[in-house]
Write a structure and sequence with these properties.
Number of helices: 22
Largest sheet: 7 strands, parallel
Structural class: alpha/beta
Number of domains: 5
CATH class of the largest domain: Alpha Beta
Helix content: 25-40%
Radius of gyration: 29 Å
Distance between the termini: 57 Å
Strand content: 15-25%
Oligomer: single chain
Bound molecules: adenosine-5'-diphosphate, zinc ion
Length: about 750
């Protein structure tokens, strides 16, 4: 038996491939294999195959098993992973393997994952009894019975697509002798990869499905759709549409046109938050009901169960999934027939992964579109300044939706409430809610309209303080205050998770009068319940939505009109199409005006535009009240005029002046040490080593500095900023720097981040 050698990418920081021996025929590049690594067995991805090995062959270990149930990843996908690895300064395996669903990285699960699912078919008795035995109004049951009658057989997920409780129903029908497992299916080769077994027979045949109403496009929408549909080759679009302008409808029509022209094409639709997937999924399912096959529309996000996510991923990988709807991680899905990419709310910081491979899904989406020569649509009411600048230079084509789509829905009126002025006139706020805001909330309640109160801080109060001695409750493990969570009687660190019960008295001086300082969403919820009697107040933030599915339930309560005042963090600000919200109150926005982060203004403006955009979407006149101490600030003025363009151009001019992104390219080296000294020394040594790297003279190096929150969970953190007017020079320098960094010791961890968002 002749042997071959494979070079395998493993999820390991060493920037090399790992050599293994295997028997012929060797797996092709892109194949998943299980290999021994140290004492463990791990799954890796074959990157290269050769007839000989550079490593003495007696030292090589054997490939343990080859994943044959799964078609190899394409060379195109490998090129994507290789690009991301190089750009974000990681090993190929650190990109490729975490991009796969967990179930695929466990050889023990391979057989089940790829096994053909059992198929159900009607028996003669079933044909005689169904559907007459069913209650007349049981629509889903009838559809299931009809599908069984029409198709030779159905598998479990086809059945579940027709009827949510299909598992129980099929078991019941089996017990009655109406349904049996089809033993004659000789699962096509490759199990799940045999394609759409059953083919056209899977088409839901019911004519009962409610017809979808497609709105008449506005002239601007129609032009945007036409331009996208007519584009050839790589075509990046910036869809700049004010809130409520109907960007979703543009995506839907662009996909319709795509599938008309190319029935087998795949589209990737990215949304910034898991919470937005149900709303999008519903819209896409309703519109694309004609796509056959149960997994023609799939979602991909991190809150899915392992098995479910693996099924979605495989549906994308085999081309069965025609629409893949997901959060940032979906940008690395395998999509052999990818023909259109949509990135909704492209400005969202959530598209940037903040740990491990710190990639920008938006940027990778554009790269992927270029690689495949297809269109990519970046949609936003408040585009990132990076994308806006690309459009200004003509590198992205701008599509503008300047007005709201629903007839009579105007953008809301923005009013600034001057907190100083209120105080001077003796009209103080009640626990942070000013008189005008309270009055506006009451008026909405009387009219039966909904209000939304936005505050980007969760918990009850950001800190607990002692008036007598000045003590502030801090985290023993971090250089940060702990947040009071009153209902749980807990102090909680939002950085490391440390938790303690609220003390009865000041631990420093014994004073029992310790009091919460400042306010978070819980406190505002409590205040509003007291201030607006009779109002049903609901809070949505990371704390109130911890359980799986709870966010969706809470949002549907809002949509169902069971809530009068919705209080929340940025979770409530984006994307949601609330129909009856006519008032938005903004609390505590000022804090971001004077941040030392140069992107804070851009982020605040986007957040406020987005949250304002929740008001008045369905024709009710909308109003936004912003409480501020700086009513004359330029940012609030631009907000009041809904003037994104003015804000963007002014901010870009400042950035150009100050030589900040997008006019320069940045990278950060972060280090974590047992002491701050260790971290700073590491960074200083790393910086000194940069001088020896050819080309590094085009890179500006800043001093190593402690991070704003310098200690988290007893680890001290510092960072070093690199900057260059040339992206190529910066990347080349980083590449050459890597071996030096690996040779330096003395810290617990270090990492390089390219295009950092938080500095
Ligand atoms: P955006 O994402 O731009 O904020 P949405 O896509 O949520 O806006 O659309 C806002 C509302 O406008 C939705 O309720 C949508 O159904 C409606 N809509 C979109 N296009 C049209 C149209 N052409 N005519 C009427 N209503 C529309
Ligand atoms: Zn005290
Ligand atoms: Zn902590």
């Amino acid at each position: 038996m002749s042997e071959a050698f494979v070079r395998v990418a493993l999820d390991h920081p060493l920037p090399t491939l790992f050599d293994y021996r295997c028997v012929e025929p060797a797996p092709v590049p892109g194949t998943l294999v299980a290999v021994p690594f140290g004492k463990r067995s791990v799954v890796g991805l074959v990157a290269e195959v050769s007839a000989h090995s550079d490593v003495p062959t007696q030292r090589l270990r054997n490939v343990e098993s080859i994943c044959t149930g799964c078609a190899p990843l394409s060379s195109e996908w490998l090129a994507l992973a290789a690009f991301a690895a190089d750009y974000y300064q990681r090993s190929l395996g650190e990109v490729a393997l975490p991009a796969l669903p967990q179930a695929l990285r466990d050889p023990a699960r391979w057989p089940r994952l790829f096994a053909a699912a059992p198929r159900f078919r009607l028996t003669g008795a079933g044909r005689a009894a169904l559907p007459d035995a069913l209650p007349a109004r049981a629509g889903a049951l009838r559809r299931l019975a009809q599908a069984l009658a029409d198709a030779p057989s159905l598998d479990g997920s086809d059945a579940r697509a027709l009827h949510a409780k299909a598992n129980a129903t099929l078991a019941d029908w089996q017990a009655r002798g109406w349904v049996e497992i089809d033993a004659n299916v000789d699962g096509e080769p490759g199990g799940a990869f045999g394609g759409d077994a059953g083919g056209a027979a899977q088409k839901p045949r019911d004519s009962a499905r409610a017809p979808v109403t497609r709105p008449v496009l506005t002239a601007e929408q129609s032009q945007a759709v036409d331009e996208i549909a007519a584009s050839q080759g790589f075509a990046p679009f910036l869809l700049h549409g004010v809130t409520g302008s109907g960007k979703t409808e543009v995506y839907l029509r662009a996909l319709e046109r795509l599938f008309e022209a190319a029935p087998q094409a795949q589209a990737l639709v990215l949304v910034p938050e898991i919470n937005l997937t149900p709303q999008f999924e519903a819209a896409f399912r309703a519109r694309f009901a004609m796509l056959t096959g149960h997994d023609s529309i799939v979602t991909l996000h991190s809150a899915m169960a392992d098995g479910e996510r693996a099924r979605s991923w495989l549906a994308a990988h085999t081309g069965r999934a025609r629409i893949v709807l997901g959060t940032r991680l979906a940008v690395l899905a395998s999509l052999p027939s990818l023909a259109l990419i949509v990135v909704d709310e492209e400005h969202e910081p959530a598209y940037k992964q903040q740990e491990g491979l710190r990639y920008s899904a938006r940027d990778l989406a554009v790269w992927r579109a270029k690689q495949r020569g297809i269109a990519v649509v970046l949609g936003s009411a408040t585009p990132s300044l990076e994308s806006w600048w690309h459009a200004e230079q003509g590198r992205y084509r701008r599509l503008a939706l300047s007005r709201r789509a629903v007839a009579d829905a105007a953008l809301p009126a923005v009013r600034l409430i001057d907190l100083e002025e209120e105080r001077r006139r003796g009209r103080g706020s009640v626990d942070g809610i000013s008189g005008p805001l309270a009055a506006a909330l009451k008026a909405r309640l009387e009219r039966g309209e909904q209000s939304l109160v936005f505050l980007n801080r969760r918990g009850y109060a950001p800190v607990l303080a002692c008036d007598a001695c000045g003590w502030l409750a801090g985290c023993p493990r971090c250089s940060a205050y702990v947040v009071l969570h009153k209902s749980e009687h807990a102090l909680r660190c939002h950085h490391c998770g440390w938790e303690a019960r609220v003390p009865r008295a000041c631990p420093e001086c014994g004073n029992v009068d310790i009091a919460p300082l400042g306010r978070g969403t819980q406190r505002v919820e409590e205040t509003l319940a007291a201030l607006v009697p009779g109002a049903r107040v609901l809070r949505i933030d990371a704390d109130s939505t911890r359980r799986k599915g709870s966010a969706q339930t809470l949002f549907s309560n809002v949509h169902a009109g069971e809530v009068d005042i919705l209080v929340g963090t940025q979770m409530i600000a984006k994307g949601h199409d609330f129909q009856r919200v006519s008032l938005v109150g903004v609390l505590n926005a000022d804090a971001a005006l004077f941040s030392h982060d140069f992107r804070a203004g851009e982020r605040l403006f986007a957040q406020l535009m987005q949250v304002s955009g929740r008001a008045g979407r369905a024709g009710l006149p909308g109003e936004v009240l912003v409480q501020t101490r700086y009513p004359r600030h330029a940012l609030y003025h631009a907000l009041g005029r809904h003037d994104y363009v003015g804000f963007a151009n002014a901010t870009l001019a400042e950035r150009r002046e100050a030589r900040l992104p997008p006019f320069v390219y940045q990278a950060l080296l972060r280090a974590e040490g047992r002491t701050l000294d260790a971290a700073l020394t590491f960074l200083a040594d790393a910086g000194a080593a940069l001088a020896g790297i050819p080309g590094s003279e085009r890179v500006t190096l800043y001093d190593a500095v402690p991070m704003t929150i310098v200690k988290v969970a007893n680890v001290h953190r510092a960072q070093l900023l690199l900057e260059s007017a040339s992206r190529a020079a910066l990347l080349a320098t980083l590449r050459a720097w890597q071996p030096v960094l690996r040779s330096l010791k003395g810290v617990l961890r270090w990492s390089v981040e390219v295009d950092p968002l938080d500095i």
